[in-house]
Amino acid sequence: MRAGLAPAAVGSVITAVSVFDERALTRHAAGAADFVSRLEGRTFTGASRRGKFLWLPLDSPESALIAHLGMSGQMLLRAPDAGPERHERVRIGLEHPTHGELAIVFADQRTFGSLAVDSLVMDGPTEIPAQVRHIARDPLDPLFDDAGFRAALAHRASAIKRVLLDQGVVSGIGNIYADESLWASRIHPESPANLLSTRAVHRLLAEVRSVLAKALAEGGTSFDAQYVNVNGQAGYFAHSLNAYGRGGEPCPRCGGPIRREAFMNRSSHYCPRCQRRLR
Ligand SMILES: [Zn+2]
């Protein structure tokens, strides 16, 4: 979504903002009128993301339009005169110096997502929105700290999968990508993080990066029509899954059955033969 928005948004002037449903602004405490006044007339200068947050920095003052997509939020690029989208909550009209007029439509069926204008704060050498400060960098971020990640694991006796899902340690890894990365690196999801060898942690990080890069190239994992790019198209990484959602099917590596187990209100999928639990 970030990659799709960037060419259209960066350099664009915000010409008009329409808020059709204030539930889309739960993260903007000052309300719709304030939200609109902080955007109209400004220019987007970039497009960034971290974890489930996406943000477009503004030329002035030090702030950004941020979007948290919740369960079903979508950022769609549309022609300026396009008719209303299903579940449309906010429309942002743009004037791009070369592409002309465009609209970003924020649509959200379940309304757990939200937009906001947020101030920027320093996070090491980079600026991030204040609401994103508690989210750790993801492993594809050039400034991700591999040694710091190893140290964080060494101090945690909880299951490695639980640590992978902890946004304060590492972001960008949800349930699906955790299962896929653990399967690829032959690590049992319940193995205590502090029992993993340095080699195993290196292997895990390499597989996380490989899984995330491949999923990004394929537009993400869509099991229904809600996870879409800026053109409304679903990703197709679901066809590349080796463990997730494959309970009872043969492991693509050893042929033994993939096991599905309850895990933190969700499920873990792993191969008990390839992924031995450390104790
Ligand atoms: Zn196996």
TrEMBL record:
<dbReference type="Pfam" id="PF06831">
    <property type="entry name" value="H2TH"/>
</dbReference>
<dbReference type="Pfam" id="PF01149">
    <property type="entry name" value="Fapy_DNA_glyco"/>
</dbReference>
<dbReference type="InterPro" id="IPR000214">
    <property type="entry name" value="Znf_DNA_glyclase/AP_lyase"/>
</dbReference>
<dbReference type="InterPro" id="IPR020629">
    <property type="entry name" value="FPG_Glyclase"/>
</dbReference>
<dbReference type="GO" id="GO:0034039">
    <property type="term" value="F:8-oxo-7,8-dihydroguanine DNA N-glycosylase activity"/>
</dbReference>
<dbReference type="InterPro" id="IPR010663">
    <property type="entry name" value="Znf_FPG/IleRS"/>
</dbReference>
<keyword id="KW-0234">DNA repair</keyword>
<feature type="domain" description="FPG-type">
    <location>
        <begin position="242"/>
        <end position="276"/>
    </location>
</feature>
<keyword id="KW-0378">Hydrolase</keyword>
<protein>
    <submittedName>
        <fullName>Formamidopyrimidine-DNA glycosylase 1</fullName>
        <ecNumber>3.2.2.23</ecNumber>
    </submittedName>
</protein>
<keyword id="KW-0326">Glycosidase</keyword>
<dbReference type="GO" id="GO:0008270">
    <property type="term" value="F:zinc ion binding"/>
</dbReference>
<keyword id="KW-0479">Metal-binding</keyword>
<comment type="subunit">
    <text>Monomer.</text>
</comment>
<dbReference type="InterPro" id="IPR012319">
    <property type="entry name" value="FPG_cat"/>
</dbReference>
<keyword id="KW-0238">DNA-binding</keyword>
<dbReference type="InterPro" id="IPR015886">
    <property type="entry name" value="H2TH_FPG"/>
</dbReference>
<dbReference type="InterPro" id="IPR035937">
    <property type="entry name" value="FPG_N"/>
</dbReference>
<dbReference type="InterPro" id="IPR010979">
    <property type="entry name" value="Ribosomal_uS13-like_H2TH"/>
</dbReference>
<keyword id="KW-0227">DNA damage</keyword>
<dbReference type="Pfam" id="PF06827">
    <property type="entry name" value="zf-FPG_IleRS"/>
</dbReference>
<keyword id="KW-0863">Zinc-finger</keyword>
<dbReference type="GO" id="GO:0006979">
    <property type="term" value="P:response to oxidative stress"/>
</dbReference>
<dbReference type="GO" id="GO:0140078">
    <property type="term" value="F:class I DNA-(apurinic or apyrimidinic site) endonuclease activity"/>
</dbReference>
<keyword id="KW-0511">Multifunctional enzyme</keyword>
<dbReference type="GO" id="GO:0003684">
    <property type="term" value="F:damaged DNA binding"/>
</dbReference>
<keyword id="KW-0862">Zinc</keyword>
<comment type="similarity">
    <text>Belongs to the FPG family.</text>
</comment>
<dbReference type="GO" id="GO:0006284">
    <property type="term" value="P:base-excision repair"/>
</dbReference>
<feature type="domain" description="Formamidopyrimidine-DNA glycosylase catalytic">
    <location>
        <begin position="1"/>
        <end position="113"/>
    </location>
</feature>
<dbReference type="InterPro" id="IPR015887">
    <property type="entry name" value="DNA_glyclase_Znf_dom_DNA_BS"/>
</dbReference>
<dbReference type="GO" id="GO:0003690">
    <property type="term" value="F:double-stranded DNA binding"/>
</dbReference>
<keyword id="KW-0456">Lyase</keyword>
